[in-house]
Amino acid sequence: MDNGFFKNMEKKTGVNMKEIMELANSLQNANFKDEKTVRSVIKKVSQIANKPVPKEMEDQLVNSIIKDGKSLDFNTIANMMNKK
Q1: For residue 46, which of 1, 7, 53, 83 is within the disulfide window of CB 3.0 to 4.6 Å?
Q2: For residue range 25-72, what is the model confidence (pLDDT) as tens digits?
Q3: What is the DSSP string of 15-59?
Q4: Which InterPro entries match (predicted)?
C-alpha cells in the first residue's frame, strides 16, 4: 500500500494509521487468553478510535474474547461496541 492510501484513510476516519499499524504489530505475539493483555488491547483500540468503552462493555468484550474463544480483531471489537 502506498502512503497516499493511508493519508486518505486518516482524513476520512480521523484515525492515525501509524497507531493502527503499531497496534497490529503488537497483536501478533499477544496472549489473548490473558485478561490483562486483552483489557490493554481493548483500551488501546478505544483510544485510537476515540470511543470510550464503559466498564460493563469492556467486561463483556473480555469475556467474549477469553471465554468464548472469539478472535480479537478490529471487527470483533467494533461490532460489539456498535451494539451498545
Answers
A1: 53
A2: 887 888 888 999 989 988 988 888 888 999 999 998 898 888 866 555
A3: --HHHHHHHHHHHTT--TT-HHHHHHHHHHHHHHHT----HHHHH
A4: SpoVIF
